[in-house]
Amino acid sequence: MIFEEMGFENILKRMLDKIPNSMDKRPGSVIYDAMAPAATELAQTYITLDYLYGKLNAENLEGEELERFVYQKTGIIRKYATNAIRKGVFSKEDGSFFNVTTGSRFAGEDLYYVVIEKITDGEFKLECEEVGEPGNIYVGSLIPVDYINGLGKAQLTDVLIYGYEAESDESLLERYYERIRTPATSGNKYHYLNWAKEVVGVGDAKVIPLWNGKGTVKIVIVDSNKNPAGKELVTKVFDHIEEERPIGAKVTVVSAVAKDISIKAKVSLAEGYRIQLLQDEFKKALEQYRKDIAFKDSYISYAKIGSILLNIDGVLDYADLKLNEEMKNISLNEEEIPMFNLVELEVI
C-alpha cells in the first residue's frame, strides 16, 4: 500500500501533535473526541486513494475495468463468445431427404439449435442458441421443438464452425502486454502476430518471416483451446490479415500440426484411491500443461510429466514412465503442438 502510513492512529497522532501540550489531549477529552471522527474520515479517504492508485496497474483489474483499460491504452477489444455452427441431416420416414424451414428449432440433449441456412437437400446449417463451447459437443438425434409434418429423422453431425468462449482476463492481459512490449509497425513480424490474434477463435499464433523466400510470411495458428485450427478459422485469419497487411507481402496461414504423444506409467496408489479416478485427474493436469506450453516450449519435458503425475492426489510413486514408448523428452518443431492421445496408468 502506497498510503500504508496514513492509518487512523498515525493521522490522529499528527493532528494531536499540533495541539499544545498544555491542553488536555487524552482519549475522552474534548479535543481528542473532536479530532477522532475527522481522523477516521481521512484514513478512509487514504484507503480509497490507495484502491484507486492500484487501478493504474492492469494486473489489478478484471472484467469490464480491464476491458476499458486495455482498450483505452491500445485499442484492443476483448474477443467475444461465439455460437457453434453445426450440420443437421434430415430425412423422411422412407430415408429420402427432407428439407426443413429456416428458423426451425431443434433440441439436442439440453441445448437448442436453430436452422439458419441450407447446404444441400436434406442438409442444413444449425446455430446453437447457447454461446461458447457447449454447442460443439453433442452429436446425435434432434427433436423438433414444434411438430414438423413429414419429418422422419433429424441428426446433428459435424461441427462446421466451432463455438468459443469469451476471451479470459488472462488472455486479454497477455495480448495487452504483448502489444506494448513488441511494437507493431509497418507490417513487421509483430503486426502479423497482432492481426492473427485479433480474430475470434485464435488462441495463439506464430509468425515465420521469409519462410518461402523474400516477401513471404507464414502464420501458424491454434484455436482458443490450443488445438489445431479448423479450416473456417484459418480462412478467417487469412481474410483478416489480407485486409490489414501492406501491399507486397505474400501471406500463408496454416493450422498448427498435432503431434500425438502417448503416456504410459505404473503407479503406486495410496489406500482408498482408484486407478480410473487418478487417470482422469492426470489427464486434466496434462491438458492444462499442454495448453500452457503450446507454441511456447520446443519440447515435452519428461521430468515435468513425472512431476505432474507425482502431484496427483493418491499417487505415492511411479515407475516405467514412457512418452511415445521412450524415457526421454519429446521434441516439437515450430509448427507442432502436443496432443496427448493416449494416457494409460497401471497399478504397480
Overall mean pLDDT: 93
Major sheet size, sense and barrel closure: 7 strands, antiparallel
Report the sheet-strand fraction. 25-35%
Helix content: 25-40%
Q: Please state how the strands of the largest beta sheet are arranged side by side.
A: 5-7-1-4-3-2-6
Pairing-aware structural class of the strands and helices?
Answer: alpha+beta
Distance between the termini: 52 Å
Low-confidence region ranges: none
Q: Sketch the topology as an H/E string, one letter per element.
A: HHHEEEEEEEHHEEHEEHEHEEE
* Apparent shape: extended
Beta strand count? 15
- Integer tally of domains: 4
Radius of gyration: 29 Å
Count of DSSP H/I helices:
8
Properties at a glance:
single chain, about 350 residues, alpha+beta, Elongation Factor Tu (Ef-tu), domain 3, GMP Synthetase, Chain A, domain 3, 4 domains, seven-stranded antiparallel sheet, three-stranded mixed sheet, 8 helices, 15 strands, extended
Characterization of this structure:
- The chain contains 8 helices and 15 strands.
- The protein is of the alpha+beta class.
- It has 4 domains: 8-74, no CATH class; 83-161, Elongation Factor Tu (Ef-tu), domain 3; 182-255, GMP Synthetase, Chain A, domain 3, CATH 3.30.300; 258-347.
- Strands 5-7-1-4-3-2-6 form a 7-stranded antiparallel sheet, with no helix packed on it. Strands 8-9-10 form a 3-stranded mixed sheet, with helices on one face. A 3-stranded mixed sheet has the order 13-11-15, covered by helices on one side.
- A hairpin with a 6-residue loop joins strand 8 (202-209) and strand 9 (216-223).
- The radius of gyration is 29 Å and the shape is extended.
